[in-house]
Write a structure and sequence with these properties.
Blueprint: E1 9-14, E2 38-46, E3 58-62, E4 67-71, E5 74-80, E6 84-88
Antiparallel strand pairs: 1-2, 1-5, 2-3, 3-6, 4-5
Length: 90
């Protein structure tokens, strides 16, 4: 299915938390859910009124921001541009 966001909306795939720490310790599902108040997401596409974000950008959003959207088993978020905290640059 093809999804086209309207107005200032952004379609993004949230980053999945690591299952293993750098030291090799396995992290169970749900552990650390309340740690940190932001997360990263990869932008898939943007609406026509979005100015500061483009496809393939990595953005920082609040922990509980976005409307869940499932496209053929891929979990995505629909986010208003105002809820984007920043863009990660290389």
């Amino acid at each position: 299915m093809k999804f086209r966001p309207l107005a200032d909306r952004i379609l993004a795939v949230p980053e999945r938390p690591a299952k293993e720490s750098r030291g090799g310790i396995l992290i169970p599902d749900g552990a650390g859910e309340l740690q940190g108040q932001s997360r990263k997401a990869l932008v898939v596409t943007v609406g026509p009124e979005v100015n500061d974000v483009k496809a393939n950008d990595v953005i920082i959003i609040g922990k509980f921001i976005g409307l869940d959207y499932d496209d053929e088993g891929i979990k995505m978020l629909i986010i208003p541009e105002d809820d984007v905290l920043g863009v990660v640059e290389d």
